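User: Quick sanity check before I run a bigger batch. Here is a single chain. Can you write out its predicted 3D structure?
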Amino acid sequence: MSTNSSTPILLKKAEVCTRLSMSERTLEGKVNAGEFPPGRRIGKFIYWTEVAIQQWVVRYFGAQEAWMPSTVAARSARSHRALSKKAATPRKGAAAE
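Assistant: Done. Predicted structure follows.
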């Protein structure tokens, strides 16, 4: 059987959970809270398209992938390095050991 490129790949709930490393209860909770796209029932199984799962992953982790250190964090790191350098420099009048 050949697959048409326009035919969506369907994933059962257990397959979605395995791919996302989450339990079925967590998945159900996210669906009920509106944080995850609802599946579609066909017979006794619920399915999601692979595209829907991929789009959710991109939206969910998009901020993580776009993350850049803030200028506040960069300034804090510079201040920390300056303080470390100052602490390592011997004070005037301190007795040499």
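The chain has a mean pLDDT of 84.

User: Great, the batch can go ahead then.
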